[in-house]
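Annotated sample (chain length 70).
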Amino acid sequence: MELYKRTLDGLMAFTLTQLEGAAVGVKEVEEKRSKEFAAAWKRLEEMQANLHLRAASWDASCGRCLSAYK
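Output written by the structure step:
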């Protein structure tokens, strides 16, 4: 019976250690993906701002071109 209890204790300790290690790995991946998402979102916002500037510049240089479509 004592051997059985020690074996179960060992298995539980091993399982908990593995779960803790997996949790750390998941946290690291979440942080990495969050940073990647933030960088991609920033690039999209920069692209959108650039397109707005280009559209405004085109409208200013050819004002009546766009005003005909408004």
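Annotation: The chain has a mean pLDDT of 86.
Annotation: Helices lie at 2-61, 63-67.
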